Fold these 3 entries.
Entry 1:
Amino acid sequence: MIKVTLSVLVVIFLASIFAPILTPYGPDDINLDQLRHSPDMHHPLGTDNKGRDILSRVLYGGRISLSVAVVAAVISMGIGLIVGLVSGYAGGKMDTAIMLVVDLVLAFPSLLLAIGISVILPPGIYTVMIAIASVGWASFARLIRGYVLQCREAPFIEAARVIGCGNIRILFVHLLPQCMPLTLVMGGLKLAGYILTEASLSFLGLGAQPPTPSWGSMISANRIFIMSAPWMVIFPGLAIAVTSLCFNMLGDALRDKYGLKLTG
Amino acid sequence: MGERASPEAIANIRKELNADEGIFAQYRGYVMLLLRGEFGRSYYTNRKVLDDLMSKFPHTLLLAVSAMLISVPAGIALGFISSIRRGSAIDRSISSLSVVGLSLPVFWSGLLIMLFFSLKLKMLPPSGTGDVRFLVMPALTLSLPAIATLARVSRTTLVDLFGMPYVRTARAKGVAEWKVRLNHVLRNALIPLVTVVGLDFGSYLNGAVLTETIFGWDGIGRFAMEGIIKRDYPVIMGCIIVGTVVYVLINLLVDILYHYLDPRVRLYSSHD
């Protein structure tokens, strides 16, 4: 199952990366002779209300949606790793204070918080990355902190201290690599959610601005045509659903394989 | 205001919004407003945001509660069936379906539901606020991811419980299997499940913004969406604050409910 999921994901990523080669039309090429054309040989997924090819837009949209989700995940992981490492290793008041902030962030309904952030900053893909990451880091931080608490008293850390390693060295050379597998599995699971959040924010008009296509904004712009030209909405949504499904299944499979318990 | 506003008019608005004061003075002004229980006025309609929120909140609550009424029994039932038929084809298909349910963007599944019920079957009105006919589709849409989450969590919880020694004891002393399943296992599973339902309330709020927008349901979510489109900051702030407060209150309620469901859980640790 992992193989199937992985290959679908690879296909999705490759198709987005090589969108300019794969598509005969540009994402913004307007063709007024072919408005809201149903899927056929020339336009496999049909065209939208400006005659733009849906397939091209879905592939180009994938570049936006995937890169926003991946970058947001990398930022979240980075911040979460550092905060979690420091919090778990330092312990005491520092730990209490950091966990208070983490709980505070986790106490917000995530999409509302992300909406709040994307409203303050000018709309665009960077804002969406920041919005997702500023909510996302907290769950990584909590997970890593819990793991560091377990590792902190392990013999290998004690040994490192005995041979004279400083705190910084223990943190980044000894503890950090220990946390990587857990972080990556969690990242895989979270990516599914980030794809959905990115799509939701774009759907709300807070993401990539027109004419740049992203999966969420395509659905948002085309939803008034759902009755007359459903393909304009169905295919971008299918792209979101399949990608998110693959990440979910991959995350589940990895979690089961390594027997990890992920909460928070 | 428009592009050709007179300097006086601009000055008036600036004065009204306290735009000439420093950012901290402005923030203090907003906090004072909040402390008086106000959210200010909408930039566009000039109506009090609080009044609008009060009139729209019951709609959102109705939608969220209806969605819960669908998702809680359905989710737990699916998880229960999965757990007693563990490893079977039914279990596997329920598990796969719930991953799918988690992966669907609600605004898209909502549109598909609308396409099916309104266009193909012509059974329900596509959008609007009103009686049950208007409520069915948004509630169904909102409940889908929640059903999926609950089905997954309740399956895991129930499978764990079925392996407990006390279940073997019950079976060994000859308790009927249906009694073991319902009274011994399902009942004990309720405690963790209440938490999940409560914590998941945030996803109802998140989903409400999207679902209400699609189905034209006149609640806080759609209000927020309109605010976002028009950059109507008092409206956006009001919606986010109300949403957050409700979410935190629900979490508190879950903690208290915990105590009643399981008297072993103490709200204060014993040495306090």
Entry 2:
Amino acid sequence: MTTGQIAAQIETTFRQEHGKVLAVLIATLGDFALAEDALQDALIAALEQWKQDGVPRNPGAWITTIAKRKAIERIRRDSNFTRNQQVILDSLKGDEDDEEEEMETIPDERLKLMFTCCHPSLNLDAQVALTLRTLGGLSTHEIARAFLIPPTTMAQRLARARTKIRDAGIPYRVPPAELLPQRLDALLTVIYLIFNEGYVATSGDMLIRHELCSEAIRLCRILVELLPDKPISAEARGLLALMLLHDSRRDARVNGNGELVVLEDQDRAKWDHDRINEGTAILDYALRLLNPGPYQVQAAISAVHARAETAQKTDWAQIVELYQTLFQMTASPVVEVNRAVAMAMAGNPQAGLRILHHLKLEMEEFFPFHVAHADLLRRTNQREAAADAYERALELCQNNLEHAYLRRKLDELA
Amino acid sequence: MKYMMLNYRDEAAAANMTKEDQMQEMQDYNAFFEYARQRATIISGEAVRPTSAATTIRVRDGKTLTTDGPFVETREGLAGFYVIDCKDLDEAIEIASKIPVAREGSVEIRPVVTFE
């Protein structure tokens, strides 16, 4: 293997093992910040040694063992030695003896870590950053770049979150049954937020943005794997299916000129059919658990699109029905906007326009509303009104690619 | 871990309570106290008079400046507090959610510092 190949292999290994090792360390040390510091020390040591000897057979266990030693060194060096640290030290010493023969496997504690990172007493930005940093193993720099904020700001955000976990006594555990549905919901929100940040926003560094989508899918896979195979896991599976189905269209969403291509106009041959098949299979499994929820319904909508050979051949009537179900679950006006568009596609643009008319006041500042409105007006040959709606949408649009798309649509009307 | 739970409520609404409401509230607090005592260790808990009875002082250059009213004027005023020893933040949240004031006002949970 060349030095470059070894370096690449080491980086992949770090990425894969980061969350797992950190989760075990936090469980052993009972201290978030100490665990992270010890892991950093261990990774530096690993990099040195692996460059010479190659990546060991069981890298996760290797890093864990070294990190525990590094934690002991750090505690001993610490001048403000506390009683709590003595407790950690004693428990680690006991541990060390068992590790004479190399550990074969380390327990998977990542579920606990996910719930700690997404605890509702942390603000949402902090939850997202912390989840990406600890479980995704993205560097502070990469996360900062993905969210277009200065690295120092991101570093501060992460540090504040870690301090709060310790000072506020946020538990490190999988929540008990009565809290689990609510906390799981919060966790899914964070994962979906990470995905959407990568999927919807098309400004900034494209590569890093794709990585956010992949990270969200990876995190959701881990979550589904670790949750019990019971109805409680249905929405996590639904979200995983939804993200896979959306992600299957990644290459078709932007054309060779870097322009946005909407679903209707996409080259369906460019869709990733492995992703579609996997997403559909996961959704089918989720639905059999008989615990429906908004992620499963959204995945079902996405699956109907994925099954259609062309936009015209889409089963729009079924999509209208699914939006109806989704609205009953979420009561969100955004869902109503989508239902109106689906009705138009199903052959009844007048009914769609009537729904939009009712939403007008409420959605005045919401740009997708005006895009939908313009689209339906265009389809019913109300060109002037459609042009006005595109103008309004352009005023509210923040994204360059979408802006260019709307401008093209407006020009087509003239 | 000890947590201070600060109870905030709309003082105007509290001042206009009927006798029956006050009696009911007293019963609710007694029930909460019983519940919390069985769940965890209550270190202390007091109700305090409304901000109209508050005095704020500052010492500057050795002089004590005394002003009428609370340190910060807010829509909801501090009505009382508990200090309760809980297992972790989740237990503190669970107990705090049972404080009657949480249903109309709010409860701020603050971890108490332990000096080693």
Entry 3:
Amino acid sequence: MQGPENEPSPPQPTLRPPFPNTSSPRDLEPSPDDIDKINKWQQERIERRLRGDYESSVKNLGELINGNLTTPLHISSVRVEGAPRTRHSFLSSLIEPQLSSHNTVETPTLENVLHQVRGISHTLQLTDIFSSVEPTIAKSTAPLSTNKDVDVVFKCRERGRLFIKSSTEVGNGEAGTSFTSRHRNLFGGAETLELSTSVGTKTRRAFHARLTAPVTASLRTQGEIRAFMHSRDNTHYASSKEDVRGVKASVTTTSILGAHELAYEAVLRNIGSLSPTASVSIREAAGTTIKSAVSHTLVRDTRDHPIRGTKGSYLKLFYEFAGLGGDASFLKSESETHISRSLGHGLTLSLATRTGVLYPLNGRPSLYSDRFQLGGPTSVRMFQVNGMGPKDGLDSLGGDVYWAAGLSLMGNLPFKPDWPLKTHLFVNAGRLDSLDTSKPVLPAIKACFAQPSVTAGMGLVFGYDPVRVELNFGVPIVASRFGGWRKGIQIGVGLDFL
Amino acid sequence: MPTIPLPTPVRNLFALFPLHTYPASPAYSAAAPPAHPTLWIFPPKHPGTSLLSGDVECVKWQAYLALRGIKNVGVRWNVSPQGGVDGCLPTLHLPANTLLGPRQIPAWVDSTQSDGDALGEPEGYSTPEARDESRAWVALLEGDVHAALVVSQREPSLLDSLYKLSPKYNLAALIQPPPAPLSGVSTPLPSSGINIPTSSVSIRLREAIDAVSDRLGKDKWFLGSPGPTAVDALLFAYIYSALQSQDEVRLVVERRVNLVTWERRVRALVEETIQGGQRQ
């Protein structure tokens, strides 16, 4: 018998380096010579794998849930974790309406529970006091619970309570610095207290304190109390400075028409620090006046972009009645619209309008502080800031009725379509008049529309959301005598442009 | 500020615009020039009976214009002191739509009067010595008497200060020597308020009124002038305002019969003149 050691061994292949490359790309792997490409390919492959795993998990979870939507399930309790600074009563006021809205169902199912969890999660996020809200559904731990009872646990993380910001801005002939502090969830009920103070060259001093709090459990209605004070230097167009101090209480809500604000405002205005060259009209307007007014504002903004929108529109309507005590007694109405559409090839055509009417009541003339002002780079371009309308000497007295419209064609810079710097051609028109209340109003309004001031020009637009900067060159085409027009270059910085 | 001159072609281009101009917007809210000179004053205490202002500075100039024989001067008291020339009242609004502060009023009066009405040298006083003496009386009235009047006035409440026009004077600048602050010298806090020496102010008022009364005597015009002078307008304003006050200041003046009689006579003259003007 022969042992295995006596069997002949199979022939071994002979290996002689360098070895030839016998691999064939199966997953589009790049050439091994380029290590960067290899790394990138590897990274993409990992991401693809993870995405696939995630999608398959989501699919499996979806199938699991869809297959059990009709399974009877009942929420035994709801817990919110990670909200030590939020009042229990406030959380209850948010959660209980969501739970009670599904109590009418005879046999609650998983589908009902998921809807409730989604509704509560959405409401908690709307409070703006949590940076993250993660709901989980777990078997109920209550002693008397059954298999159909579950606990819903929201693992939340509260945002920082205090936010402080200081900034310095320079532009449009104005420079200023501001300091803002915001206290979130002040009393544990999603209240926000904002304090802001600033100093500048035109708005000499400004301060406001604002306390907002939700009024309803849906958080769609907010209440706000605001105290404010600012001092504006109007020397360049009215030879005076204006100090404004007041309080405002408002309720804001949303409807299918848009965002509504109903407000009451009591304001103390003081015109003073007159220039030696101040006109007699401004001198007569000097002193302190009180306005006590209620107002309603509706804003409907469906635009996809405030400057180069391709769909939607912007509408703002403002109505104010003053005369609940104080010196001012008037009815005021203002409107503002904006619409823009893409024409293709990077061109955008936009049309904006503004109108306003102020009708004095009780036979009292309108007060300087309440009248409208018009003109300037953010208003009717190629006019001085607030330079349109009735004047006494060099002082703009403001008007009681105005309208303004602007048509603008915006395009890309040649060869630089991706730059935020755009070109535009514009035509602006408008007029500001005072009302003689001893005469019928409608003919005065018609006359206001019949003699428009018109300007035209071109310029560069730099959009740095939400601020817009314009450098324009233009001329007045038609204008009123002593109308305060400008010819040549004008620079504008602002949020809202005509 | 130096400006960069525009090139001629650009200037010519700009000259074309605007292509059409409308008439200027009518300014219904603009102030119309008055038909007659109008003095902007603080409101009278009793507008129904007298047009003399409740502020001694305004009364001075009302009396000055009246005693200089300027007739048809209207008054209005619905303009804030912040609207006056240099931010104070009175201010004279002329039909040419120009405004004059108190310091410009004498020159305007001189320019409107004929040679016969103008004050002769030395400024209407009997002698140059009387003119020089008048400066001392002006300092006394505008110092001690004015300080006593300001101290006697009640500080308006916050609501009153919003709705009623009332003059504000810097009491610290009127009292000599300057009063000490309310806070102590060793406090680290900034000094605030003033410690009004009421007894000292009261004594100085008595002394001043006694001196004025003795100097006036039974003269028709102060310092024995042949006609009314600027110091008469000043003296009338302070005596009138003191008699309108409701406290010790009035009693101090009322004890001097010659002052009361003189004030009554001059007031009749002044009111007769200013009642003819329009009021707004």
